[in-house]
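Dissemination and training. As part of the outreach component of the grant, students in the summer workshop were shown how a complex can be specified as a set of sequence lines and then modelled as a single object. The example used during the hands-on session is reproduced here so that future cohorts can follow it. Participants entered these lines:
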Amino acid sequence: EVVMTQSPATLSVSPGERVTLSCRASQTVSSNLAWHQQKPGQAPRLLIYGASTRATGVPDRFSGSGAGTEFTLTISSLQSEDFAVYYCQQYNNWPLSISFGQGTRLEIK
Amino acid sequence: QVHLVQSGAEVKRPGASVKVSCKASGYTFNSYDINWVRQATGQGLEWMGWMNPGTGSAGYAQKFQGRVTMTRDTSTSTAYMELRSLRSEDTAIYFCARGRRQFDFWGQGTPVTVSS
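and obtained this result:
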């Protein structure tokens, strides 16, 4: 199974800052990577798929990059509504397996 | 607009089974896979498997093989996930999500509590 490792576990940032979240795969997943945002008490929301394509309706302050085993999600200028938990998800091994990272929590500094 | 509406919270005894439903609307049900993902309290996301509503075929994560079944009723555009032989570690919120590999729409989640 492909193990996804996200870093850091928690990030304390101020509104308006630029932030970069990291996700590493234990083996190559090509560009078969998505990012989801989850707020407390809500279902996850798809932000990015194909490592760098924004989902419908996602603001352009969110961007994804990377391929192979190293990926990043960048938020160019944090808004109050962006404080949430972010998960990366690989789907390279579909239909045999799909796996998520353990999440990065963005907190208000 | 696309909606996935799940059934309500469940409380089960260890060893019992639970069947969660996910009613789709706003799109052609047969055209998109339905996946199931669960999340224990304060924990991350765990993929359980997928089901193709058009064919009825399904695939399950190895961890759940033999204990889970994913089905559908095309007449009501509803997907189902049944988990058997429940144990306390199965206490979680269960989500359905649309898509073959990346999940673009999610249900609101169904809390399942397993307790004696």
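The first strand of chain A starts at residue 4 and ends at 7. Students were then asked to discuss how this feature might be tested experimentally.
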